[in-house]
Design goal:
- This protein is α+β, with helices and mostly antiparallel strands and 127 residues long.
- It has a single domain, classed as Glutaredoxin.
- Helices cover 30% and strands 20% of the residues.
- The longest helix is centred in the first third of the chain and has 12 residues.
- The chain is globular and about 40 Å long.
- 29% of the residues are buried.
Length: 127
C-alpha cells in the first residue's frame, strides 16, 4: 500500500503590512486573497461593504495608485448614473465614499504599493 503524498503548506502569518479591500461575493477578490495566502501572507481583510473606507483613506489609496480612477468600478451601473466616466479624482473619491459599491475590487496594499488587482494575478506584482 502506497503512502499518500504529503502536501507542503507555507506557514501563514498575519501581516499588517498587507491589506485587501475585499468583497466575498467577488471571485477575483477571492482568488487574489488565495494567492496572498499561498505566498504565506495573511493580510488584513477589509470587507469594504460592511466597513467602508473613509474619504481620507480613499484619498490616500488614490495617491498611492497615481489617481482615483483605478479605484472606480466603472462597469457598476451606478458609476454611469452618476456620470463618473469623465469625472475628476475628487468627484470619484466623493462618489466611492458615498457609495462603497463603486470601489473596484480587490484593492491590495503592500509594502510595494497599492493596486486594483483585476485580474487576480496582478497581486503577484505586490509580493
Amino acid at each position: 500500500m502506497k503512502a499518500s503524498p504529503r502536501k507542503v503548506f507555507k506557514e501563514v502569518t498575519q501581516d499588517r503590512n498587507y491589506k485587501i479591500y475585499f468583497n466575498s461575493s467577488c471571485g477575483t477578490a477571492r482568488n487574489a486573497l488565495a494567492l496572498l495566502r499561498e505566498a504565506g501572507i495573511e493580510p488584513q481583510v477589509i470587507e469594504y461593504l460592511k466597513n467602508p473606507p473613509s474619504r481620507a483613506e480613499l484619498a490616500a489609496l488614490a495617491k498611492q495608485m497615481g489617481g482615483a480612477r483605478p479605484l472606480l468600478r466603472e462597469k457598476e451601473k451606478l458609476a454611469d448614473e452618476l456620470g463618473l466616466k469623465q469625472a475628476d479624482d475628487e468627484a470619484i473619491l466623493d462618489a466611492i465614499a458615498a457609495h462603497p459599491i463603486l470601489l473596484n475590487r480587490p484593492v491590495v496594499v503592500s509594502p510595494k504599493g497599492a493596486k486594483a488587482c483585476r485580474p487576480a494575478d496582478l497581486v503577484k506584482e505586490l509580493l
